[in-house]
Amino acid sequence: MKVVLGVGKAVALLFWLLVLVNLFQPFAQPFAWMLYLFGASVLLLHGLELMLFSARLAGHPNLPLQRLWVMLFGILHLLSLPEAAPAEAVEQPVVAEEVSHA
User: Fold this and answer.
1) Which runs of consecutive H residues, i.e. helices, occur in 1-102?
2) 69 and which of 60, 77, 87, 91 could share a cystine (Cβ 3.0–4.6 Å)?
């Protein structure tokens, strides 16, 4: 799984590099406008992912850097994060009825 995520991140980085180059040195039309449109769409979707999965990022150190990685790589970065530690079980009060049936 790590290899797939690494390859996906490399492809995403190449995409963002193309979008950045296109901003300073536009490609031939219609490719320049397609890259603008795709770049804006991906940026919008990654912003939506950031809003939806902000709770998963909350426990990780260096939160601004984690948010930047989500904006660059989206779900690929979220899948590579370790799972959050499970919350400790909260003791439930024992009801008298349950005790009598035991």
Assistant:
1) 2-24, 31-52, 54-57, 63-73, 75-80, 96-101
2) 77
| Contact (CB, 8 A) for 60 and 66 | yes
What is the spatial distance between Cα 90 and Cα 72, in angstroms, rounded to a whole number? 37
- Residue 89 is predicted with a pLDDT of 43
Distance CA 62, CA 65 (A): 6
CB 53 within 8 A of CB 32: no
